[in-house]
Structure to design on (152 residues):
């Protein structure tokens, strides 16, 4: 709870029922939320991460840790930062991603991630009328092939 003295100086005091804030609710479209605060006023804010088709797989730091990335499956986790700027993976609510769309020419996709940044990528395989049924190896694996679900 926030109170003020005669000079206007704020004081935080424990209050059994909690203090000022907002009540975050969910709907079919806004099905997850997490709480954050306005950087200037400290006011409580409900954050609703969007639903996506594919999700990022890494979190990046800032400041002295701008080149640091950590693994974080953002389909059910989100990125955060420590006080020093080190990246953290916070469980419970989805994070960043992209929404893959289909068209008549691109009627299917699969998700991949950039190997350096972990950013989600929609991959649209070419649309063909006939498909290979073997996957041949290269180099030391030139005699190795996969047929349907067989493994070398």
């Amino acid at each position: 709870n926030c109170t003020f003295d005669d000079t206007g100086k704020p004081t935080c005091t424990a209050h059994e029922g909690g203090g000022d804030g907002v009540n975050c609710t969910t709907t079919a479209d806004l099905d997850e939320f997490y709480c954050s605060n306005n950087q200037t006023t400290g006011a409580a804010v409900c954050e609703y991460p969007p639903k996506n088709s594919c999700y990022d797989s890494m979190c990046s730091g800032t400041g002295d840790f701008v080149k640091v990335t950590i693994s974080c499956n953002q389909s059910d986790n989100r990125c955060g930062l420590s006080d020093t700027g080190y990246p953290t993976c916070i469980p419970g609510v989805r994070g960043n991603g992209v929404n893959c769309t289909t068209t008549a020419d691109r009627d299917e996709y699969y998700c991949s991630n950039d190997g350096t940044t972990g950013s989600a990528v929609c991959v649209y395989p070419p649309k063909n009328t006939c498909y290979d049924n073997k996957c041949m190896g290269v180099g030391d694996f030139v005699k190795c092939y996969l047929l349907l679900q067989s493994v070398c």
Notes: The CA atoms of residues 1 and 19 lie 4 Å apart.
